[in-house]
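Reviewers of the previous submission asked for a worked example of the structure-prediction workflow described in the proposal, so we include one complete record here. The input consisted solely of the amino acid sequence. No template or homolog information was supplied to the procedure at any stage.
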Amino acid sequence: MTLAVSRVRGAGTDTQRIHGYDAKSLMGDGTGVVIGIIDSGVDVSHPALAGTVSSGLPRLVAQANFVSSEPANTGDDVFGHGTAVAGQMLSRNATFTGVATDARYVNARVLDSNNSFSGDAQVINGTGFALANGANLLNLSLGYFNSNTSGNSRLSLMADAIVSGFRIPVVVSAGNAGNAANHLPQGPGDAFDVFSVACTSLASNYGQVISTSSWGPTSDGRTVPDIAAAGDQIVTTQQHTAGFGIWSSTSFAAPNVAGILAAQIEYGKSRGFSIDPLVLRATVLNSVEKIKDRNGINWAPTTATTSAGVYTVTRPLNASAGAGMIDGRCNARPIADAISRFVTGAGAVRFNGPRTSAAASAQRTIATQSSRWIHDITCRPEPRGPPAKNRKGSASCGSAPPSRATTNPVRSSTTRAKALASSASASHSRHTEARKSSPGGDDSSSASFDCVP
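From that input alone, the workflow returned the following structure tokens.
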């Protein structure tokens, strides 16, 4: 089925703009990566998302529904949000192509038919299901709607614990409250060690943060979001059709980051490089394109001073654009100097965590490991360019209202965060909620875990 397009433009415009196809050419298409999609479900029968990967395994690893108010659902996407998010990373359509086309995925349905969640336990349990089924990269295009932006909500603590405890990168949308009085990134977009992603606008050729994208600093003074990506007027997979729709918000900027991370994870694994989340953070945040902030002002760090000719950056991220816009041409920008400044403590890369006394030593280790990436990607030739994508596509207009929770139970303890992550990880208990295993392979049906209340 082909849907009518309200606005015709070049196929894959957003992916080309962030040089996603260059990332695919330079580093890979996500082979060996399993992406946990924690969202409204996925239409796994969509032609662009179905089938098998190069190894012959099904693209879908496993799926389950965690919305207790809709128990009959087995993971299908009623609203369309999750299918659109999945397409940004995974679509194999010849016209609208993702970056991680050989990655596999876990479909954890945690948002209801209205694209919302009434309690965060279902999000925590869905995340655990993804971890239990082998996800080594998570995308959560969702968030609370409240005034707590200190990184201490249950979802933020869970996300940080997954990064620091399981060493798995977590990508989240920063939120879409940029024009509201409470414009701060909401949890888990305010977490310490995730990739919190802002959205850039099509009107600026994705060179400026859109005004609706949430911006910081957080209520406890941290500069968030971390990075920006194209997310406005995105043409991506539409549920229950074979076609495509147009979606906009930080929800669709986040999977653009996740797709490039999948390529980098494949490349690192194949060459014995560290794929620790903080190594990925160091390389990605220091190979960005400097764009304009939400006010149209050229990128600048939040806090910097010049004294006696010495330029010192104490808060290196921009309040609305983070480090800048992700750039899939990781070899196109000289980031070795930035890493060396970080090693000597000048602050070009300042991680917000892990929240332990060993942070300084751990971060120096991260920087050393990052230098292996730097040498490799700066010594490689430029890619030959993105694949030809000139065919006009078609889609239907859609809107992407941000998913919001109605409650916000808060826990400030790191111990509690670890407990939440552990509850959301594999165990020997049998999971009793409805689950539908993917066809064509028995590796997707054996995982189980404890649910949290």
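The longest strand covers residues 34-39. We consider this example representative of the routine output the project will generate in years two and three.
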